[in-house]
Structures are given as C-alpha cells and as structure tokens.
C-alpha cells in the first residue's frame, strides 16, 4: 500500500507540474533515510531482544523440566534470580527500541522543511511560469506524502525481521544436518555380543556448553556380565556415560568400545537395539501400552511384548486394566500415570 502510494503520488506530481516535481524528487532521499535507518536499527534490536528472551526461556525450561530437583535443593529463589537477571538485557534493549521508534516518528518533522522549500520554489513558478497556486500546493503535498509513504514501507520491514528472528531457531533445527544420523544403515554388526564396554581416555563437553568439560581423560571398563553402579553428585556425568554409550553424542576425544569394536564403526540402529534403557525420569507416550512397549522393538510380536512386560514386573498390573495392553495412556511421569479405557466407536 505504501509503495503504491509513493509511486502514484510522484506520477501525479509529474503530470501536474513537472518542473516542481523534478526539484522535489531528490527530497525523497531526505524523507526515506529516517525510515531506513530506524528500520535497520529496529531490525537489529529485535534480533538481540529475541536472543535475550531465548536465554530466559532456557532457564525457565530447565527449571520446569527439573522442577523436583529445584524443589528438593531449595533452589526456587536462585532460579527466580537467574531468570530476572536474564531479562535485564531485554529491558535495556527495550529502552533503545523505544528511543529508535521515537526518533523515527519525530523525524517526520523534516516534512515541514521540505514543504517550505517546495512552496518557496512554487511561488517563483507562479510568478514567472504561470503555474497555479492550487497546483503547486497539490504537487508539494503529493511529493511529501510519497516520500513519507516510502519511508513507512521501509519501517514496516521491522515486522518481517521480528518474524525472522522468532523463526531463527526453528529454521536452524530444520536445516541442521545431524552429525549422528539415526537412520543410517551403514556400519558393522557383531555376530556374538558379550557386552564388554570400555571408555578410553574419553573427553566430552555438551555442544550447547562447550566451555563446561564433563569428561577429561575418562576411563571405564565394564566386563561382560558384571553389574556396575555409577555414583556421584548431580551433574557429575552419570547420565552422560549412558548418552555416549548409546551415541546420542560423540566424544571429542579418543574412543568408546563394545566388545573391542569402536561404537562409531557399528550400525547405529543395531547398536541401540542391543541395549535397554530406563532413564531416571521415564515417560510414556500418548498412545496404548502395547505401542509404548513396541517403541523398543517396532517389529516385536505380541508374545515378545508380554515377555518384556513380565521381565519388568508389569504384566500382572497391565492384565488387570480394562483393555489390558490396548489401554490408552493419557499422561505419565516417573512417579505416576493415569490410564483411561478407550471409548468404543
């Protein structure tokens, strides 16, 4: 709409009084520059504000996902303080954004200076070239409105930048090519698995926190058939050992072996199919109990599903439910879950 207004205004100006239109044409730069500058500044500030909000979002997500840990260690006040500190940056950027918007609106005063010049030059056209006063006034207004419209069009780019900044993380995730491809079918498969696991001088830091090294020359050897417990404080790397063994992440240094073979040389799907994992905060998906168990082995038979439930001491409980293994799971957590009988259609 603004671009069309600009083009139409200058077209009408040249049709009515081309001499005045030519003189007034360079002023479009003066009228547009404030809009362009404010648009670029607002675009940059919008990006920075989004980044600051992402920091606060991360703190909130971590606190909510580990709410029991936060509560048990009486960390509510610390979490609130961290969240408030993360929002301080948005306050400063918001003030700058408000100042930029105010300057952009205030710059509209340049229009009166442009009008003054056009009316002065238009008066000479009236006196010496037979132009009419009404025509001069119409052309001057059209030039000013055309320039302001173009400037407004540029300032509206800010809204596109807001959308682009908001979608940045989503676009990065869509376009990201994972280093570990879970669908890759290449790699070795061990014919006879004994289960010996060995970590050799492993070095690792999470990609999101590369400055926080979790393992530095970590060594661990678990003989086949042994039961091993990893004990340590929260954040010491117990869960990280399992994540590395399942190749959710790859170490930055040295190697991890199963039965003497490096796991990065093994077929990933096969490797994960050889292990059973129950995490410290297990969750069930919003589907039937049977389908939840099938996530461990998609092509398993019903007999294998029942055998897995018996091995985990869940078969007797499941059998007492109204629909047994076809019972729908509505919500679950590591402490409790609710189950509802499927409605028959």
TrEMBL record:
Gene3D superfamilies: ABC transporter type 1, transmembrane domain, P-loop containing nucleotide triphosphate hydrolases
Domain ABC transmembrane type-1: 2-162
An MF annotation (GO) of this entry: ABC-type transporter activity
InterPro entries cross-referenced by the UniProt entry: ABC1_TM_dom (IPR011527), ABC1_TM_sf (IPR036640), ABC_transporter-like_ATP-bd (IPR003439), P-loop_NTPase (IPR027417)
This protein's name: Type I protein exporter
UniProt keyword terms in alphabetical order: Glycoprotein, Membrane, Repeat, Transmembrane, Transmembrane helix, Transport
Family, as annotated: Belongs to the ABC transporter superfamily. ABCB family. Multidrug resistance exporter (TC 3.A.1.201) subfamily.
Keyword Membrane: yes
An example Gene Ontology CC term for this record: plasma membrane
Stretches that traverse the bilayer: 20-43, 102-122, 134-154
């Amino acid at each position: 709409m603004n671009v069309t207004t600009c083009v139409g205004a200058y077209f009408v100006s040249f049709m009515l009084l081309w001499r005045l239109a030519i003189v007034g044409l360079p002023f479009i730069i003066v009228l547009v520059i404030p809009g362009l500058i404010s648009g670029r500044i607002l675009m940059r500030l919008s990006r920075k504000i989004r980044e600051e909000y992402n920091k606060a979002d991360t703190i909130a997500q971590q606190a909510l996902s580990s709410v029991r840990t936060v509560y048990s260690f009486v960390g509510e006040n610390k979490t609130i303080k961290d969240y408030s500190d993360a929002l301080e940056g948005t306050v400063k950027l918001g003030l700058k954004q408000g100042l930029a918007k105010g300057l952009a609106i205030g710059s509209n005063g340049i229009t009166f200076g442009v009008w003054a010049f056009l009316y002065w030059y238009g008066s000479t056209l009236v006196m010496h070239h037979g132009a009419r006063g009404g025509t001069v006034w119409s052309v001057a207004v059209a030039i000013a409105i055309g320039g302001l419209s173009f400037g407004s069009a540029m300032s509206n780019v800010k809204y596109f930048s807001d959308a682009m900044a908001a979608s940045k993380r989503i676009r990065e995730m869509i376009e990201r090519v994972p280093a570990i491809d879970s669908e890759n079918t290449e790699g070795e498969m061990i014919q006879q698995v004994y289960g010996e696991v060995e970590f050799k001088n492993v070095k690792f830091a999470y990609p999101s926190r590369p400055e926080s090294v979790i393992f530095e020359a970590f060594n661990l050897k678990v003989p086949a058939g042994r039961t091993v417990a990893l004990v340590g404080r929260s954040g010491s790397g117990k869960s990280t050992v399992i994540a590395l063994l399942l190749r959710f992440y790859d170490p930055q240094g040295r190697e991890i072996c199963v039965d003497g073979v490096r796991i990065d040389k093994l077929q990933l799907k096969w490797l994960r199919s050889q292990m059973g994992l129950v995490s410290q905060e297990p969750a069930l998906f919003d589907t039937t109990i049977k389908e939840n168990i099938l996530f461990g082995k998609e092509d398993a038979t019903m007999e294998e599903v029942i055998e897995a439930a018996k091995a985990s001491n869940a078969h007797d409980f499941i059998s007492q439910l109204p629909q047994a293994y076809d019972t729908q799971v509505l919500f679950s957590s590591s402490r409790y879950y609710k189950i509802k009988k499927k409605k028959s259609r």
